[in-house]
């Protein structure tokens, strides 16, 4: 085991040549992705460098309030991403608020559970452990909630006639929406299921790879990766189910009517 390998900016610049290769490929094949590629790359560099300095400051202070503030900022940005990925959005603050509340509840619950019962750091809110775990759980929970809500609202709009026919025949809103809520939850969980099925055999996750590159024993890195995958699975399930149920309640009402007027299309 050789331990941690330091990377300098020359190493990163050499690796960044691959981005120029992608841009050249887009120009040659006329994919028109070079602008998006450049913007995404610049955004990634700025975001990661910024979070690096923020985490360094957090690790040196170990304040529960600063850790909570960082977590809150992450949740608010993730809520915006959920809203941006919806083809049909709930009107008003529902689109943003529902995603934020469901994701925050699921991600915080799972992260605190892991910190208190498996990681057991002192203090339990130490940002070195809390922020990375929360980020990994939240990233996957965000994707699950976004997919679930998008599938739910799209299905409700597309199958409006069938749903209203069920309601006219005496079905409750839960009975009429049940096939579509099931599909929505299934869509939300599918990326996580696929990731678990492929992990180890097809791909080595970034966290495990990073630990191995930094000198951690591969078996110990595997244990941490398993823990993270279990947490991601739990967080995604909890958040997606809560969001789909809440979304179902929002696009129907207590009089068992379909309320598509509570949705809008476009940004």
Automatic annotation (TrEMBL):
<feature type="transmembrane region" description="Helical">
    <location>
        <begin position="95"/>
        <end position="117"/>
    </location>
</feature>
<dbReference type="GO" id="GO:0005886">
    <property type="term" value="C:plasma membrane"/>
</dbReference>
<feature type="transmembrane region" description="Helical">
    <location>
        <begin position="184"/>
        <end position="204"/>
    </location>
</feature>
<feature type="transmembrane region" description="Helical">
    <location>
        <begin position="65"/>
        <end position="83"/>
    </location>
</feature>
<keyword id="KW-0472">Membrane</keyword>
<dbReference type="Pfam" id="PF03649">
    <property type="entry name" value="UPF0014"/>
</dbReference>
<keyword id="KW-1133">Transmembrane helix</keyword>
<feature type="transmembrane region" description="Helical">
    <location>
        <begin position="129"/>
        <end position="149"/>
    </location>
</feature>
<dbReference type="InterPro" id="IPR005226">
    <property type="entry name" value="UPF0014_fam"/>
</dbReference>
<feature type="transmembrane region" description="Helical">
    <location>
        <begin position="224"/>
        <end position="249"/>
    </location>
</feature>
<feature type="transmembrane region" description="Helical">
    <location>
        <begin position="41"/>
        <end position="59"/>
    </location>
</feature>
<protein>
    <submittedName>
        <fullName>Putative ABC transport system permease protein</fullName>
    </submittedName>
</protein>
<comment type="similarity">
    <text>Belongs to the UPF0014 family.</text>
</comment>
<keyword id="KW-0812">Transmembrane</keyword>
<feature type="transmembrane region" description="Helical">
    <location>
        <begin position="12"/>
        <end position="29"/>
    </location>
</feature>
């Amino acid at each position: 085991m050789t331990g941690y390998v330091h990377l300098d900016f020359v190493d990163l610049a050499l690796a960044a040549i691959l981005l120029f290769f992608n841009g050249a490929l887009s120009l040659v094949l006329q994919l028109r992705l070079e602008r998006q590629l450049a913007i995404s790359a610049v955004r990634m560099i700025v975001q990661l460098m910024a979070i690096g300095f923020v985490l360094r400051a957090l690790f040196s202070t170990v304040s529960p309030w600063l850790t909570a503030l960082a977590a809150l900022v992450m949740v608010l940005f993730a809520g915006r991403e959920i809203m941006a990925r919806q083809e049909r959005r709930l009107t008003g603050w529902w689109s943003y608020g529902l995603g934020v509340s469901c994701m925050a509840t699921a991600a915080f619950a799972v992260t605190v559970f892991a910190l208190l019962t498996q990681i057991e750091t002192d203090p339990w809110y130490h940002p070195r452990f809390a922020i990375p775990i929360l980020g990994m759980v939240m990233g996957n929970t965000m994707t699950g909630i976004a997919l679930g809500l998008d599938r739910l609202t799209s299905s409700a709009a597309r199958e409006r006639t069938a749903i209203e026919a069920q309601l006219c025949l005496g079905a409750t809103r839960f009975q009429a929406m049940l096939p579509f809520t099931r599909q929505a939850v299934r869509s939300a969980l599918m990326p996580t299921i696929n990731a678990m099925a492929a992990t180890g055999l097809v791909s080595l996750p970034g966290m495990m790879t990073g630990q191995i590159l930094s000198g951690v024993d591969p078996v110990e890195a595997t244990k941490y990766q398993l823990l993270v995958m279990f947490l991601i699975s739990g967080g995604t399930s909890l958040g997606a189910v809560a969001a789909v149920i809440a979304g179902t309640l929002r696009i129907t009402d207590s009089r068992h009517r379909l309320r598509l007027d509570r949705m809008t299309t476009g940004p």
